[in-house]
TrEMBL record:
UniProt source species: Pelagibacter ubique (strain HTCC1062)
Family: Belongs to the metallo-beta-lactamase superfamily. Glyoxalase II family.
Cofactor names: Fe(2+)
Presence of keyword Acetylation: yes
SUPFAM superfamilies per record: Metallo-hydrolase/oxidoreductase, Rhodanese/Cell cycle control phosphatase
GO MF annotations in UniProt: hydroxyacylglutathione hydrolase activity; metal ion binding; sulfur dioxygenase activity
Name of the featured protein: Hydroxyacylglutathione hydrolase
EC number assigned by the record: 3.1.2.6
Length: 337
């Protein structure tokens, strides 16, 4: 078997490349958009054909590379069946098997961090996404997360796997790369509890500073260079088209920027301001009013808005679009502020 663990520094995300052998089918788990070219180069160098790409859940801290990989390699996009329908080609149910040439993965539904989180078991190893991290567990305070579900997924599913099973998570912020079930049983501080209630108590009192980001991740990827073409993913819309659809009665226009950016650069008429760090809370609280709306996001350069569309899927909103290149691009086209 060929197995590679790749790391995205900006978001501390692990991406996994798996194949049975040279010249054969490959699979990628949790790709990061900014690294798609790197994956494609590696596939070529290793003489592999990418056939499937999986996201363990809807990520809040980086833009998924699955759409870009699908467009560039014609691979099949896969997620668990709790994900909104339009996102992926293949949805797998709990305990269903995902096959590629010479390899099989078993899907395990592990909600808690988010409602659509799945883990994937492959022989001696399990890819846990953010359901179970090394010496930690994924936060449960946004994206329809739930601490009791997290407890059940961990204690009644993942920890029931053989003790020597290797754990490969979606993130690590301390330099760890792999663990085992027995190690986490013994040393994961959040798992040293005697009841579900005790675990829920811990999870509900984490007081994490920024609800829009993972456990301790900093949104450093928000400052990376922006490639306008790539923002076509997650329903990116060009300024002219965005200008047209924003006037429909059905549309709601959301400005994700900070007040100082708005003061400096102005804003598009009739925008509702929801700072990006508050977007989870806003979507959660306004579920009913937003249900029948078309949500249009914009920000300064188009990165926060790309991520906002991705996050909206956690709340089952699929009628969401964002302005490619943000206000910078809008101004370049000479449109009204
Ligand atoms: Fe996550």
């Amino acid at each position: 078997m060929l197995f590679r663990q790749l790391f995205d520094k900006a978001s501390s995300t692990f991406t996994y490349l798996i194949a049975s052998a040279k010249g054969r089918e490959a699979l990628i788990i949790d790709p990061v958009l900014e690294n798609v070219e790197q994956y494609i180069k590696l596939l070529k160098e290793l003489d592999l054909k990418l056939v499937k790409v999986i996201d363990t859940h809807i990520h809040a801290d980086h833009i998924s590379g699955i759409a870009e990989l699908r467009d560039k390699t014609n691979c099949v996009t896969v997620m668990g069946d709790k994900t909104p329908a339009d996102v992926v080609a293949m949805q797998v149910a709990d305990e269903e098997t995902i096959k590629i040439d010479g390899l099989e993965l078993q899907a395990i539904y592990t909600p808690g961090h988010t409602i659509e989180s799945f883990s994937f078991l492959m022989n001696d190893r399990v890819f846990t996404g953010d359901a179970l991290l090394i010496r930690g567990t994924g936060r449960t305070d946004f994206q329809n997360g739930n601490a009791r579900d997290s407890y059940n997924s961990i204690f009644n599913k993942l920890l029931k796997l053989p003790d020597e099973t290797l754990i490969y998570p979606a993130h690590d912020y301390k330099g760890e790369m792999v663990s085992t079930i027995i190690e986490e049983k013994k040393f994961n501080p959040r798992l040293q509890v005697s009841s579900a209630d005790q675990y829920i108590e811990i999870m509900n009192n984490l007081n994490l500073p920024n609800p829009s980001m993972m456990d301790v991740a900093v949104p450093s990827n928000l400052q990376l260079g922006i490639d306008f073409n790539r923002q076509k993913v997650n329903n990116g819309v060009e300024p002219e088209k965005f200008n047209e659809i924003k006037n429909d009665a059905q549309s709601i226009l959301i400005d994700l920027r900070e007040q100082n950016e708005i003061d400096k650069d102005g804003m598009i008429k009739n925008s509702t301001v929801v700072r990006f760090p508050e977007i989870n809370e806003y979507l959660q609280q306004n579920k009913n009013t937003l249900k029948d709306k078309r949500i249009l996001f914009y920000c300064a350069h188009g990165h926060r808005s790309t991520l906002a569309v991705q996050l909206s899927k956690s709340y089952q909103f699929t009628n969401c679009f964002h302005l490619i290149g943000g206000l910078k691009n809008w101004k370049k086209e000479g449109l009204d502020l």
